[in-house]
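Write out structure tokens for MFS transporter.
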Amino acid sequence: MTTSTRPNGEPAAPQADGAPRDSGADATRTLIALVTAVFAYALMQTVVVPALRLLERELDTTPAWSTWILSAFLLSSAVLTPLLGRVGDLYGKRRVLIAVLGVYGVGMIGAAVAQNIGQLIAARVVQGAALSVVPLSMAILREAMPRRRLPFAMGLVSGIVGAGAGAGLVIGGLLADHLPWRYLFVLGALLAAISLLMALRWVPESRHTAAGRLDLPGAALLGFSLVAILLALTQGPSWGWTSARVLGLFALGALLFAALLAVERGRSGALIDVGELRDRPMLVTHAAAAFFGAGSYFFYLAMPLFAQQVPGPGGVGFATSVTVAGLLMLPGMLAIIPASMAVGRIATALGPRWPLAGGFLLLTVGSVLLALSHADEWEHLVFYAIVGAGSGLVMGTLPKLIADLVPLDRTGTANGINNIARTVGSVVGSQLAAAVIASSISSRAAGVPDSAFTTLFWLGAAAAVLGAALSPLAVRHAAAAASSARPAERELHP
């Protein structure tokens, strides 16, 4: 039986499974601290999106370089997240969480004082470490929360990821419209500092850690393979998808990933558990995250662009400000939080397969409605709210599925890999959306035609349909049977 200590030095109550649980008050404070830390990350992943044109102008750079403000963050996040999740599993989640928040704050300060595009991109690389806050938080919750509150807590933290990303679009627009661009990162530094103080005070460190050492060869192979693949996806539109450089990067990424699987197979303490990747429910859970990441970015790019575009001869666009464009997405972002928190109750009432499948089905409905009709502002508000509710169910279910599939000492690592899958999907979605938009523009004066937006909404529906089709395979048959046979146990283990 394993115990842990709270920040004040008192031992937390041990559980039969070896996972310590804090008292109700301590658990609530832990949840507040983790929600704040995750919100600080989620907000800053999108807060720069409305200001990209402004940053391009203020830093006297080109569109190709300005896109790296986003791409560098995504690349760094994908490479560092599984590594930092594994470090947390090995050496303590609280310790790593505090270190990550400190580094994140340094990255924000670096961005706020950047004098050129190169310095800003370098700061964004440092900031990318913050994605690991999400899997670390899930692992901490699994140890620190009472069982009956765990589904709610995981759902809330998952919902904050999506809601924070939506809030970033609104807040980024407000700051870009009214203050110098450096305040975008001043805000991030303040949030990082607040999160760090709360984590120091309220987040307990568990003594339940994984055995073994950090798998540096596995981390290097995974990191280089992800860099090659994501760099090819990011640079494909500018270099050409059939160019030697892009094809070479894809081939290099595939070779490195094959080498990773060969090195990790049967290795004790491996960063990538090859057995997990062969496990159908785990593989499907990662695939669902990838489809969700791709589908989300079709909306992130299409809806603000539609809202801000001045209607041309075809009458497409609302001619709103950056701020109003973000506000049109706000109901959808707010819908994410209650939907995420409802995952446990839905699983208890209907079975563990339904939250993920239901989420993707709602995403499909919202996407189809937007594809069929998006000429009025009320349609964006209402139909994207349906998309947001579906997103909340998906985001709340993924970490719960992983918690059901892996042992306690693999929680951070497995959630980190799931976040990689979502990040790769996001890059694919963003580049595909950019390609659809670019190929549809006949001249700068004409703007983006309505057919391009319709195509993007249909692509969002296609990604959601694929996710819905996979969803039933993400749950083991034994788990589903147990869920339906023991309603009393479902209340404890939804």
